[in-house]
Write a structure and sequence with these properties.
- Keywords: Signal.
- The chain is an alpha/beta fold.
- It is built from 9 helices and 9 strands.
- The chain is about 35% helix and about 15% strand.
- It has a 9-stranded mixed sheet, with helices on both faces.
Length: about 300
């Protein structure tokens, strides 16, 4: 979805709610037998660089999928794997403050990655397609040797990737923490129309500098926004995958009370719509819960990992 307000702490052309919820804003690889064992590195996952001799240091793996390369950053651990997926317009660096603390607290392998067109990953021309983003994540985890016991942590737009990924790969996931994520109940025809109108000025501004990565992603998302979100409204989450729904108090729409209400209602509806789901409110937080309340994110991820370790 599009973000209703511009975050003044970032450049004016920052990805808006569309990015935030569409794909908004974020791991390898230790599960080999479905229960999480030692990591392996198959030849298809090319290690570009690695930190030698330093425990807890991330390794960069370049993964190939559908003709483009994607950067996956892996902090090796044991047992479970935690995959962090950032929101729209954000690359893996969004999680830099959380990765070391999460690795230390859980001992798990922690993976972050740059979606196509962001960070060190290749850009892909044309409209943004959630199925392509899901395919990229699937290819990365497969080539890194991840086969189970994965906790997926998805912020904002990445909630859309998480929903389709979970539907396709329920046995791979032991759980998910959806951090102020874009969720299907939000996207009624009325709300889609509101979001398109709300973000039209930002889309037009982005056209002035279409090669800037965040602008490029925003324009790609805008090109497919309406049909993609009509389809997403009908998407379902598998009952076999537990999920913690972590919602911000201010939401991406701080300043738009009607959209704030709809965002909060969508999170509550999703949490109530299946077994194994919990709703947790990040009091006082903006949409950027990982920045405003990192301790809360860590706490909920630790709970999810511990429950299935």
């Amino acid at each position: 979805m599009f973000r209703a307000t511009i975050d003044r702490r970032r450049p004016a052309l920052r990805a808006s709610a569309a990015l935030a919820l569409l794909a908004l804003t974020a791991g390898a690889v230790t599960a080999c037998d479905g229960h999480g064992s030692a990591a392996r590195r198959p030849p298809s996952a090319h290690t570009v660089s690695s930190a030698t001799g330093r425990a807890g240091a991330a390794e960069l793996h370049m993964i190939e999928n559908a003709g483009h390369r994607l950067a996956f950053h892996v902090t090796p651990g044991r047992g479970a794997t935690v995959v962090l997926d950032a929101g729209g317009g954000e690359d893996s660096s969004y999680w830099n403050g959380i990765v070391p603390r999460l690795h230390e607290a859980t001992g798990a392998t922690v993976i972050t990655y740059d979606r196509a067109g962001l960070g060190k990953s290749d850009a892909v021309p044309g409209p943004w397609r959630v199925k392509s983003a899901v395919s990229d994540l699937e290819a990365g985890l497969r080539q890194l040797g991840v086969t189970g016991n994965v906790t997926l942590v998805s912020h904002s737009q990445a909630g859309e990737i998480a929903t389709y990924f979970a539907r396709n790969n329920p046995k791979l996931l032991s759980g998910a923490v959806l951090v102020d994520a874009s969720l299907p109940p939000l996207y009624t025809d009325e709300e889609i129309a509101r979001l398109v109108a709300l973000n039209r000025p930002q889309v037009e501004e982005a056209r002035k500098d279409p090669d800037e990565p965040r602008n490029r992603q925003l324009l790609a998302i805008a090109a497919s926004y309406v049909p993609m979100h009509r389809a997403y409204h009908r998407a379902t989450w598998p009952d076999s995958v537990p999920a913690t729904v972590l919602v911000s108090e201010k939401t991406p729409f701080d300043g738009s009370p009607e959209d704030v209400r709809r965002w909060l209602d969508a999170a509550a509806s999703f949490a109530q719509d299946g077994p194994g789901r919990r709703l947790v409110t990040a009091r006082g937080s903006s949409h950027d819960i990982p920045k405003d309340r990192p301790g809360l994110v860590l706490k909920e991820v630790e709970k999810m990992v511990a429950a299935h370790h």
